[in-house]
Design a protein that fits this description.
Oligomer: homodimer
Structural class of chain A: alpha/beta
Distance between the termini of chain A: 47 Å
Radius of gyration of chain A: 24 Å
Strand content of chain A: 15-25%
Helix content of chain A: 40-55%
Shape of chain A: elongated
Largest sheet of chain A: 4 strands, parallel
Order of helices and strands of chain A: EHEHEHEHHEHEHHEHHEH
Strand order of the largest sheet of chain A: 2-1-3-4
Chain lengths: 272, 272
């Protein structure tokens, strides 16, 4: 029998940190099915009372107390949440005390200011997002000199999402160029990218997964056939190795993992 | 005198969680300047030894021990990191014990499996990213029936990055439609969006920030003038209120905060 528990990720901001931490902890308990809910912007005592009600309802339905992962800055709000019928993981409380002693400074208690939104930081990301959009899918190659990295790979190997994530998370200007059948047959780097060899990073993907993705796009086409996918992937991987282009396989990874692998393997430093 | 400390965010995965948590904790200590470095994919004892060396060099340079935020799953790797000359915040160790007692289950120790990359989860996001790209900037309006939300706003108010983030983080299909000068002069909802009133969400921005952004795009143009920006923003906010369209101001927020506000204010549920 699978046990079911409810988990809440509560924050006075977006809740993204609280959720990411909570999920990674809960994933370690594989025999339990968790109903997960993120509650962002709990930034007043009133909202905290509503949250308590929500938690207590879940406790009654489940007949066991929900888990609460909380990254709320304000003490008064946290104290209200603590009155709920829950098992509470108070993330900041756990670490702020030790950090305060180590740093010999009182932590500030400004609510919701946990992420400093510096204008230059924001601008860097927007600039990088615009760059990714404008230099997507080989649409424009004349600004490759401005790229931090140029992702290459066969059609549908995951280049566009990886470029967007590189922009959004790291402020990296990532262009991408699709390796066409002609490029592959030629067995050499296409003219528009060969001058940027040091910026190239290859993506590859398992042929059966590629066929599945392509079939959604163009069902029963030659383009989506196993034969064609096998051929393209094989040739492209040969090209990467022959041209000594670093590459990674995207099949089993999330967008953030692919982007982070590109960062690490190509030695890029974040720009924001 | 500003004190300088070095902080490392160490993970066997992307390090994104460890970094987000560490940064939000460090932001609470406003008098200290932190040199931050994220070290992802520390997934072997050998890499852990390299990390120790890195930490110890920073300790000698700073003449004070670095802070280490670590979300490594494997005990052996963590033990190596713990031999460094650092103040270590061991995130998993702090919470796994209490969780284990509460859930009455031994946590799994599979390295790097903290994020389960389910294929459906990935597909949802990719589908949403493709939707955002294909329905960006009013390029195509005939698929608005498939949208979870349609962001509207004047040119350069931050619609595109918000749509992409909604897709990437929440699997939400977000289209966007730019309100042109003609739309604004007409003082009514444009024909292509008025049938989707319940999906509309407005973005607005402070006029001086808008003028700054537009000036980068088209310096000294009428489009970028304070007068024009003032006018457009004023009229668009009037329209939102008159048409009872929920809206948010993007000026002081990061992309993730804008996206999360859209989620909360429009009552959207994540799709992945």
């Amino acid at each position: 029998m699978t046990i079911k528990r409810t988990a809440f990720f509560i924050s006075d901001g977006t809740g993204i940190t609280s959720e990411a931490l909570g999920v990674s902890l809960l994933n370690r308990f594989e025999d339990i099915a968790f109903d997960k809910e993120t509650l962002p912007y709990v930034d007043s005592v009133e909202k905290a009372h509503e949250v308590v009600e929500k938690i207590n309802i879940a406790a009654r339905i489940d007949d066991s107390r929900p888990l609460v992962f909380d990254t709320v800055v304000d003490d008064a709000i946290r104290k209200v949440i603590a009155t709920s019928d829950s098992f509470m993981i108070d993330v900041f409380a756990a670490f702020l005390g030790p950090l305060q002693r180590e740093l010999n400074e009182q932590p500030s208690t400004k609510v919701g200011r946990t992420r400093i939104t510096e204008s230059t930081h924001y601008d860097k990301r927007i600039e990088a997002i615009n760059y990714a959009l404008e230099n997507d899918d080989g649409a424009r190659t004349k600004y490759y000199d401005q790229a931090d990295v140029i992702l290459i790979g066969v059609s549908r190997s995951g280049k566009t999402p990886a470029c967007l994530y590189l922009a959004m998370q790291y402020g990296i200007k990532a262009a991408n160029y699709p390796l066409t059948e002609e490029d592959i047959e030629d067995q050499k780097l296409p003219a528009s990218i060969k001058g940027f060899r040091e910026k190239l990073f290859g993506l590859t993907i398992e042929p059966d997964r590629l066929a599945l993705i392509r079939n959604e796009r163009k069902p029963n086409s030659r383009y989506a056939s196993m034969k064609q996918c096998n051929h393209e992937v094989e040739e492209v991987e040969l090209m990467y190795r022959r041209e000594r282009i670093a590459y990674t396989n995207t099949t089993h990874y999330s967008v953030e993992e692919i982007a982070t692998r590109v960062m690490v393997k190509s030695g890029l430093q974040r720009r924001c």
